[in-house]
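Notebook entry, structure prediction.
Reason for the run: the old model in the group folder had no record of what sequence produced it. Starting over properly, with the input documented here first.
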Amino acid sequence: MTISEDLSWRGQIKDKTFDNLNWLDDPKTFYLGVDCSSDSLTIGNLAILMVARRLAKAGWKAILLVGGATSLIGDPGGKDEERELKSREEIVKNVAGVQKQVKQIFDGIEFVAVDNYDWFKNIGYLDFLREVGKNFSMTELMQRDFIVSRMGDGGNGISYAEFSYSLIQGYDFWHLFKNHGAVLQIGGSDQWGNMLSGVLLVRKKENAQAHALSTPLIIDKSTGKKFGKSENGAVWLDPNKTSVYQFYQFWLNTTDKAAEEHLKIFTEISKEEVESIIEQFNVNKSERLAQKTLAYEVTKIVHGNQRADSIKKVTEVLFGGEQYTSLDQADFEELKGELPLVEAENKIDIVEALNRSGLASSNSEARRFLGEGGIYINGQQIPLDSTEIDPNQSINGYVILRRGKNNQALIHFR
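New structure, fully documented this time:
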């Protein structure tokens, strides 16, 4: 399957400036710009990063730009209100965090990393107006969707700084065209107006053709809202903001309706494999094969094979009936930040452990749970006459204490 056929099948093509999709099948050089308004990307950024991976693997030379300069202004695309300006120091920190994540996502794939602050820091205002501003019509800029929405009835207005953002991004494309041979910019559909600025500038300044390709906005079909958030807010790619365990669980909780679409967009599983998975999934949806495959494959790309394997094993032990004895020290370390943790020196009273872990709200409630046979240690039901948890019952120094089906805590014997 060619790259144009693959992207079409995956539903990752919305707008394009070239006539024939086959143009993508002759590899050249493309670039993708990434915002650094935070020190971490979210899964909302992941779809376009996957397009970049696919193009690179199809032979395209990849340039991945972090917006050390553009993030000082703030992209107005898709925003109803003016962004709060961030300091240069904060942007430098954000750039470092985003670069680290991009490097992980492109592990083993060749790409060129650039920061647009490197070429913007020495550009004078008058030079910019003469070299760039002179090439844009105010009439055309005022018709851009994000400008119309901000300045129309009910809009919150837009500053000159954010209004000018599109010209800055256009300059990026021109710079990368001249210095790296970039002839294609890719981005989400909310970036379409900004990408057109680069296409226009290359044409006017160099009398040459450059192109843009956008991907559709991904909508959470269960809520009708933009994809990328959980009940707890944004799902980050930084494991310190969204743990690997929580990240895996987010994908595992994908609805049946969205599972096939997400397998196409967020994994590199082939068409034949996806069709086989969905066929098996439709026969027995309770097994959740589509969600399990999705969660593992996306976690592997974002956090690496080792952590994906560990979280997959932990999840299968906690919720899938696998043996607790299969868990190793690294697996328990992953769990320490996810389950209520009780530290113990030696034996610990079961009632005390239930209370300290929050699995019971009082001694009497803890005794009632015990009397009903609803307490488990490492998957084994506690005998009714048991009163203590012993270090000898631990696995690598840990005991997973469970009440009922899904309420769990971790006891660590130091």
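Summary: The chain has a mean pLDDT of 91.
The old model has been moved to the deprecated folder.
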